Automatic annotation (TrEMBL), chains A, C:
InterPro entries: Acyl-CoA_Oxase/DH_mid-dom_sf, AcylCo_DH-like_C, AcylCo_DH/oxidase_C, AcylCoA_DH/ox_N, AcylCoA_DH/ox_N_sf, AcylCoA_DH/oxidase_NM_dom_sf. Residues 234-367 form the Acyl-CoA dehydrogenase/oxidase C-terminal domain. CDD domains: ACAD (cd00567). Belongs to the acyl-CoA dehydrogenase family. GO terms for molecular function: acyl-CoA dehydrogenase activity; flavin adenine dinucleotide binding. The keyword Oxidoreductase applies. It comes from the Bacteria. This is Acyl-CoA dehydrogenase domain-containing protein. Its cofactor is FAD. Keywords: FAD, Flavoprotein, Oxidoreductase. Transmembrane segments: none annotated.
Automatic annotation (TrEMBL), chains B, D:
Belongs to the acyl-CoA dehydrogenase family. It is an enzyme of class 1 (oxidoreductase). Its EC number is 1.3.8.4. Residues 235-391 form the Acyl-CoA dehydrogenase/oxidase C-terminal domain. Residues 6-125 form the Acyl-CoA dehydrogenase/oxidase N-terminal domain. One of its GO terms (cellular component) is plasma membrane. Signal peptide: none annotated. This is Isovaleryl-CoA dehydrogenase.
Length: 382, 399, 382, 399
């Protein structure tokens, strides 16, 4: 029984946070609001050099075998530094390709991602407001797989060299994951306007895109479920980072902002809001830790606890970043204040890959109704 | 008790509806004819609106006729507000003049001031802004440092004000300035009316988190105004400021429910089209509860408004209990904004998604709601006021 | 447009509150916890003498034509004084009998109720956890109506001389209201243990109870809907009274209870809780006022606003009485403190005739789905 | 990080399960064999339980062997607590001794004190109660007025204590008493161990709002204890009290999640049988959200417990962050109680209704939860402690 991160894990964290604070932070985040997905190009090389991209891979592909648990604190750092980069997507794509891809797929994509030559992303949305596998159909024509359909909520699509999307094949009657290369014919990207302007999202339309036979990963449903589970744990950790950073800034601010003859932090209303927020933060922290561990271990309870963590951390981050605005007062409402950058990021994270209410309803099917989804464990116990 | 509107009042409502049908383009404020987004265009529309309302005899409904008002009552004001909100009529650019300065002048101004300032205010010929907050005087407004010194027949004003909406359009500003630095901080403040079009006044836009510049920073650098442009006595400005604050916190709620109701209806439409884990959000029992809680709260805001009107018919102004209403609607609106984000859900971060049906109104409502619990007195300040001045709980050493 | 109570209405209130404070209050409420329904007998004569019972009736039956609006403040007083008496039931029974009963019914029951000779009550519960008309069937045997079945949540059944219950007749295929006399054969009363020990509830079993033809009120469904609507408005007003009284006591207490060298009421945490509670109280007050007016006027929106008022006031009273415990601190947790009497009453009221969530779901059917129930108005507008 | 329990620990869990199966009657704590309601019977069961646990070598699991403990770790304590909660094992009557006094003595006591007091405490031969709160010293505990004066070789204690659970059963009381009236209020307090069975001690039951008398008022009227029965130094009692408070607020959470989990399961069963406007409550999306929020919070309490154990394995005690956990579980339990009342709904006010399935457990949980945010430091005090001692926010003039 040991519920703490190791010194090695903290070293990975410190170095990631150091890099991200230097190279990203509120400054780059603001640039992203103006420039869009392009800012990711300024980061990708630096993240690769430090071994952050593909760090989970085996050495053969340029990685260092970091587990999701090792990596969890890196996602936290990304939240703290408001990183405008599809880090969760990058992690998920490499993890999925290494586990489920064949040799050809792995050789083709993994070294390029680890080296920062290709930014990967994922077409999360099914176009119905959900994050299921629907939306893209495959048809065989003249011996080639042709894809038709639409997916939404594709982060940083404009700079991605690889888009992972689920698709449905009528021929084989099942779901597979397709690896798409933007720039090839039949693939169009349409930007969506985002509340979090530093995390550009797009919709993806496929109109006869010719998919190479090699760029297919199966079994799609299982891999997609795993992709979502890992992403939920990663986003939960990023939300924690966002909230803890703005909470730290808020604490600093209320210690120095004076009104009525002293720092506003001496008022009980401020203290109690801070105490409540701290409690939520620390609770999200242990929830995330447990989720990262179970997901990392491949525990059958992983999906359940990833949902718990994401729903809790998402709600927490909405609340804590909202309180940060309130406790900063009017100044937080100006564009020049950094507070809104954290606020918008937190609210985006909270809705990404499912509202908290959606995730809890999924949990309820298991805990209340005793129904198990594909990939869920059956061993739920105390 | 009789909550019905009288036949005369219902006739007035008809008149307002006809007016709105006549002057607004068809489909105004819907996707068919969306509200202008360009600030310049918004300002033009707003200014035009002020003059149109005035030209149709609908400005200053409850204000005395001798100053250009219509000599009617608060009930007509409510009806007018409700109908405008329902039709999504333009916001106007003289809300601070009509909502705050005018009512204050009517109570505290001299006869000359009323004759000089109120008619052009109502006609939309002079637009007003409010010079209150300073970078280091927010909740603790009385610690303001902008100073005014008498130089012969003129006040000379120096200092910086922030959060001054409409300053770039305004002809006049009502300013709180320190006129006696040696007095206790609440005792040395004077309420001045200052012309904006002069060399000593600089207006700079203050971009807010929505990306728009609705507010400004105004710098007074030896700006001048005539000696007689003081409301109330010299060094009695804090009392005047409190009068105006209770207008800001109280009477501005009258008719406000109709505005929230329109947002609520927009949101409910979105909920019918948005899907969650249990199908359409409008069919999900969790969201139905939240919708009905909000609907109830908006209705209760309407009832609070009736209470205020009834009170204003017998007393001419509101006491500190007005803090209650500002607290009520700002916190309620925050919940509405949060519900909107949940309803839009996966589509939430994307103004281009479902919310585009409403021209992005729900996003704007969400972001603005975060300011409403801060401006015009934070929720924390309102609670202090309620606890100390209404409920009689002891002060704790604060001045 | 006049949203205030009249001087006459306040006079009725003052005199009712004066009487109830003298004759009831926390003292009698405690007695009721020990003695049960019997305490109602100590009150009934005094309430009758002051014209409170049947005050809504016409002079012919000993009343003074008070409308529900006139009476609303009396329910508030009952809440303030923790009255252990089925006042809402008494009001509802007289109102229903005068509106829907025939001459025989009115002559038989109304003067007795107004004079305090008969305490009436209502069998609210349908035995399925709801408050619909089900649970009792009537069968004609040897020319007499025989009733069989069970209803629950009958307040003060042990001392009631008249129980109003809905029943279903297979012969006429409809719902009617039956007027039962406890003590007659075929009617059994089984006490239920109540959280609010000063408001005893019972279940009622009917096993061949012989109902006089005369003791029937029709149309039952419509009258029952009206009974529930009036009762919801009355309970909402009683909840307001409970909450405002305990709030007043709490304000007094925090002004005098000293900790850390001064009254605890100077702490912002206490102030802000008090301000929040006050806002809820005043909001429930205007909601109730609007509901009382629409119900009193027979407005078709009455049922909707009665639900709104009851749900809001119920939630408010739970919160305000809960805060009263917290703000009183440990002392509120003792039996000797009065605070728990208000707390338990508020929580009972909040669940009576439907949880707030049930009432809001009923409202949602109309506001969200546009479905109208029997008796609901179709004129919903701003 | 490795959250799994080791093979040894899993074996220990099996041992505890066997123990519980062996000593508890079949169906214990269910409607089949309900928990005794009569206070006298409860006390007998509780005392018997203390001795049974001790006799099976399961008392003082993490305490040193030389004082009668088992020399194991916090992990075994957690496992034992979890299994007891799951089996609804009796509460015991020496929780204050085991949870508070014992750990304090182990850290702050003299060797003689440890040898004298800990073995009988663990054996259930001496029961302890806590003499802290006074009628005028609740949140502001340091303003206590019970005084102790040295008279030769004995302390003479006079004053009144309240909220002393188990005082009617206790052999000893640990008492905070003022020993230097002239010192600043935190500096003149001493921590004394006082025998209960003497003429100067009077115990009176304090009936609480549940109708039961779980607490007492204890009056010391020139009660006496030996001079050496001081823990820590004379006038250093406030520091000792803070040590003990952090035990009370922190370590008592370990294993507590299992207790809430049992309540949660009971409540979920009730929700399957209870009906609302949308059919069974367990199928209603509104309630499903609330259930899953609570389930998540109970799980998070379990994780917090793991964090505490991990911390205790390296450090021997907790800091002020322990306040966080008391705040967390007490506020969470209040929400559980409220959900219970909503689930029972129309049947809520009636202990004879659905809740009878659970022997009235849900009602008791609801009512007790209202005390938990008050006792052992109110939620407001906990928040102050977190804000000032953990987050470093400035004090505002309070001592």
């Amino acid at each position: 029984m040991d519920f703490s991160y190791s010194d090695e894990q903290f070293m990975v964290y410190d170095s990631a946070l150091g890099l991200m604070r230097r190279e990203a932070g509120p400054g780059l985040c603001r640039d992203a609001y103006r420039e869009g997905a392009g800012v990711a190009r300024r980061l990708v090389g630096k993240l690769a050099d430090q071994g952050i991209l593909g760090g989970n891979l085996s050495e053969a592909y340029g990685g260092s075998h970091l587990t999701l648990l090792d990596y969890a604190l890196v996602f936290e750092a990304a939240g703290q530094a408001l990183l405008p980069f599809p880090l969760a997507e990058s992690y998920v794509v490499t993890a999925i390709l290494e586990s489920w891809g064949d040799n050809q797929v792995r050789e083709r994509w993994l070294p390029a991602i680890a080296a920062g030559k290709t930014i990967p992303t994922i077409a999360w949305g099914d176009g119905q407001g959900g994050f299921e596998t629907g939306g893209v159909q495959s048809v065989k024509r003249q011996g080639r797989i042709r894809l038709f359909g639409r997916r939404t909520f594709v982060p940083f699509a404009e700079v991605a060299g690889l888009v992972l999307t689920p698709a449905y094949s009528t021929e084989i009657g099942g779901v597979f994951l397709a690896l798409l290369e933007p720039g090839r014919p039949g693939l169009a990207i349409e930007p969506l306007q985002s509340l979090d302007g530093s995390y550009p999202m797009a919709a993806l339309s496929l109109d006869g895109y010719a998919l190479d036979e090699a760029d297919v990963v199966r079994p799609g449903a299982e891999a997609w479920q795993r992709a979502r589970t890992i992403a939920l744990a990663a986003l939960a950790q990023e939300a924690l980072g966002v909230a803890e950073e703005v909470f730290r800034l808020t604490l600093e601010y209320v210690k120095v902002r004076e009104q009525f003859g002293g720092p506003v932090g001496r008022f009980q209303a401020v203290k109690h809001a801070a105490a409540d927020d701290y409690l939520l933060l620390e609770s999200a922290r242990v929830a995330n830790r447990y989720a990262a561990w179970t997901v990392s271990e491949g525990d059958s309870d992983g999906p359940l606890y990833a949902k718990l963590a994401k729903a809790y951390a998402g709600d927490m981050a909405r609340r804590v970043t909202g309180d940060a605005i309130q406790l900063h007062g009017g100044i937080a409402f100006t564009w020049d204040s950094d507070v809104h950058l954290y606020f918008k990021r937190a609210w985006r994270l909270a809705s990404q890959l499912g509202r908290s209410t959606d995730l809890r309803e999924q949990m309820a099917r298991r805990i209340i109704d005793g129904r198990f989804e594909e990939g869920d464990g059956h061993g739920y116990s105390l | 008790m009789d909550i019905r509107f009288s036949a005369e009042h219902e006739a007035f409502r008809e008149r307002v509806r006809s007016f709105l049908t006549e002057v607004l383009p068809e489909g105004w404020g819907t996707s068919k004819h969306p509200y202008p987004r360009n600030p310049q265009e918004q300002a033009e529309v707003g200014l035009c609106w002020e003059r149109t309302v005035y030209a149709h005899g609908l400005a200053g409904l409850s204000w005395p006729k001798e100053y250009g008002g219509q000599g009617l009552t608060w009930v007509e004001e409510v009806i007018f507000s409700e109908e405008c909100a329902r039709a999504n009529a333009p916001a106007g650019v003289n809300g601070l003049g009509k909502g705050l300065l005018g009512p204050t002048l009517l109570v505290e101004g001299t006869e000359d001031q009323k004759r000089r300032f109120i008619p052009p205010l109502l006609a939309g010929d002079e637009i007003w802004c409010q010079g209150y907050s300073e970078p280091n005087a927010g909740s603790d407004l009385a610690s303001l440092t902008t100073r005014a010194v008498l130089d012969g027949d003129e006040w000379v004003i120096t200092g910086q004000k922030i959060w001054t909406s409409y300053a770039h359009l305004a002809d006049w500003c009502f300013v709180l300035a320190r006129t006696d630095a040696s007095a206790p901080k609440h005792r040395g403040i004077t309420f001045l009316l200052v012309p904006m079009h002069q060399v000593g006044v600089t207006v700079e836009p203050l971009v807010q988190l929505t990306g728009e510049a609705h507010f400004n920073s105004v710098t007074f650098n030896e700006a001048r105004t005539a000696r007689e442009n003081v409301v109330g006595a010299v060094n009695d400005g804090w009392r005047i400021a409190n009068t105006i604050l209770s207008f800001e916190r109280g009477t501005t709620i009258v008719g406000r429910h109709a505005h929230y109701r329109r947002e609520f209806d927009t949101l409910l439409d979105a909920a019918r089209q948005s899907r969650g884990e249990n199908g359409p959000i409008a069919d999900d029992a969790h969201y139905r509860q939240r919708f009905m809680e909000l609907w109830s709260e908006i209705e209760i805001l309407r009832f609070h408004g009736y209470q205020v009107i009834t009170q204003l018919q017998t007393k001419s102004r509101l006491g500190p209990e007005a803090s209650m209403l500002k607290l009520y609607y700002s916190e309620m609106h925050k919940r509405l904004g949060e519900l909107a984000m949940d309803v839009l859900g996966g589509a939430m971060p994307f103004a281009g998604g479902l919310d585009s049906l409403a021209g992005g109104d729900l996003h704007r409502a969400f972001l603005w709601s975060r300011a409403e619990t801060i401006f015009a007195g934070t929720s924390e300040i309102q609670k202090n006021v309620i606890a100390e001045r209404v409920l009689g709980l002891p002060k704790d050493g604060r001045p």
